[in-house]
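Sequence, please.
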């Protein structure tokens, strides 16, 4: 394994994500990144990004067909999920065409359910503020009241794995974290300077900085 391969940042090709916009967001910060579904490349990456646009059912079908489930579950380097990518880290989701429960990666023990938006329209789409932020190193420089860009109709509830929260009708997890896995319900790649700060914090992260929440 070459030193270049060992330090590579990768975006997992789930077959249904906004891969090019995530790649551009990383590259404009001065970091190299490769889009791949190659198991050995993902295993040997320094950092792994799990992006997401689409439904949990479709994404998990693609992940299973590519033979990536066990690989993703067993990663020990820092992993950052964007939107659906965050939701795929959880136990399950009901985001499917018929509303049946979809088994996800089971990395973070929480479940994705329909967002209780009260009288607000769905999807929750646009800019919204964080109502809490943990001291996780990925969120260094991020504060309560900061705006991020959301597009979703399903969400993770508040739990001990909540790393940031947001309110849209009801409170939900705007970010979750467990060990080396971190997920953002919002889209960092579409969240201007603050989103770029999160991506940069993640890519500059020393694995030793990872904390268990």
């Amino acid at each position: 394994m070459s030193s270049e391969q060992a330090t590579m940042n990768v975006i997992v090709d789930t077959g249904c994500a906004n891969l090019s916009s995530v790649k551009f967001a990383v590259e404009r910060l001065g970091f190299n990144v490769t889009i791949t579904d190659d198991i050995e490349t993902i295993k040997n990456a320094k950092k792994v990004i799990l992006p997401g646009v689409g439904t949990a059912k479709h994404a998990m079908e693609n992940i299973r067909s590519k033979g990536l489930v066990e690989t993703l579950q067993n990663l020990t380097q820092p992993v950052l999920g964007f939107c659906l990518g965050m939701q795929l880290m959880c136990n399950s989701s009901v985001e499917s065409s018929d509303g049946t429960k979809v088994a996800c990666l089971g990395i973070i023990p929480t479940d994705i359910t329909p967002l209780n938006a009260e009288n607000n329209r769905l999807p929750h789409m646009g800019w919204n503020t964080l109502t809490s932020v943990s001291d996780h190193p990925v969120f260094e420089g991020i504060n309560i009241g900061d705006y991020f860009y959301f597009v979703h109709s399903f969400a993770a509830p508040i739990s001990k794995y909540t790393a940031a929260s947001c309110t849209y009708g009801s409170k939900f997890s705007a970010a979750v974290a467990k060990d080396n896995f971190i997920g953002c319900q919002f889209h960092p790649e579409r969240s201007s300077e603050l989103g770029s700060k999160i991506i940069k914090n993640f890519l500059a992260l020393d694995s030793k900085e990872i904390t268990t929440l």
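The first helix runs from residue 3 to 6.
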